[in-house]
């Protein structure tokens, strides 16, 4: 009973009604009058606080403000994580295909029984039903080969594709596989081909050669020049990063830079590739398939 008596006065105090009056200071006229209790004030204040906390939480969770939370990755970092995950998956698939391919080659060399070899049907090199076929050269095939070789023995047109003199037999490695966005045009003094590729894609050397220039320039960003045989020079502009230094020897197909968007004379990530022979510009598309 004593505890009840102690709690009752507090509850009564919370329920006691009060009047909040706002009066005009000059005329003492009543402008606003509000009738309330302590319990009402505590209830309204608590609900308002809870609503404010919920709104602030939603505002931070579903707006870019969440990136300012310590430890939360920003947009660029999330994109890099997604791109790396995609690249890793692609790499795993390619490695798996390569392993199956080499396994098939080993089976062919070792003469294994393909009926007992577990292999992906899409990557199979030899169909099991053709494993007993004989590929010995027939007499008719030998006669045909001999006649054909005799006819072409003195044919001077072989290997001549109408390219610049001395370059007809040169095999160029594509610096990047992508979409050509701007073609070679000597009238507009655009002495190269612009190729758009993927993010962070590698730029490869088109031939064996020596790096003679690898520096930053204001208009074309990171640029690298390679001197090749046959008085050829290849130029790669607007790179994001250079992987080689002047004086280094590179092989055809070797990575020399990363695709980028550097320099003032660029409107997006791409490679500006030029090919020069004896000091004269060539149309790269006449020699390379991008």
TrEMBL record:
Keywords: Membrane, Signal, Transmembrane, Transmembrane helix. This is M23 family metallopeptidase. It comes from the Bacteria. The keyword Signal applies. The chain crosses the membrane at residues 41-62. Residues 190-284 form the M23ase beta-sheet core domain. It holds the Pfam family Peptidase_M23. The keyword Transit peptide does not apply. PANTHER family: L-ALA--D-GLU ENDOPEPTIDASE (PTHR21666:SF289), PEPTIDASE-RELATED (PTHR21666).
């Amino acid at each position: 009973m004593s505890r009840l008596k102690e709690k009752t006065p507090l509850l009564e105090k919370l329920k006691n009604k009060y009047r909040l009056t706002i009066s005009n200071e000059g005329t003492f006229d009543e402008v606003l009058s509000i009738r309330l209790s302590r319990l009402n004030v505590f209830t309204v204040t608590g609900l308002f606080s809870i609503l404010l906390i919920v709104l602030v939480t939603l505002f931070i969770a579903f707006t870019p403000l969440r990136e300012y939370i310590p430890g939360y990755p920003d947009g660029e970092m999330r994109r890099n994580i997604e791109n790396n995950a995609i690249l890793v998956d692609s790499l795993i698939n390619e490695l798996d295909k390569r392993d199956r391919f080499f396994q098939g080659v080993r089976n062919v060399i070792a003469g294994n029984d393909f009926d007992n070899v577990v292999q992906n049907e899409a990557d199979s090199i030899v169909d099991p039903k053709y494993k007993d076929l004989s590929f010995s050269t027939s007499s008719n095939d030998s006669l045909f080969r001999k006649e054909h070789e005799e006819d072409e023995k003195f044919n001077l047109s072989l290997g001549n594709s109408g390219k610049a003199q001395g370059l007809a037999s040169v095999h160029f490695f594509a610096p990047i596989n992508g979409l050509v966005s701007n073609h070679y045009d000597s009238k507009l003094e655009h002495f190269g081909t612009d190729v758009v590729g993927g993010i962070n894609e590698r730029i490869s050397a088109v031939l064996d050669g020596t790096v003679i220039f690898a520096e930053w320039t204001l208009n074309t960003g990171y640029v690298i020049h390679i001197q090749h045989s046959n008085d050829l020079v290849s130029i790669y502009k607007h790179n994001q990063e250079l992987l080689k230094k002047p004086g280094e020897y590179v092989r055809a197909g070797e990575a020399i830079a990363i695709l980028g968007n550097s320099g003032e004379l660029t409107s997006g990530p791409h490679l500006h590739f030029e090919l020069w022979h004896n000091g004269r510009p060539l149309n790269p598309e006449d020699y390379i398939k991008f």
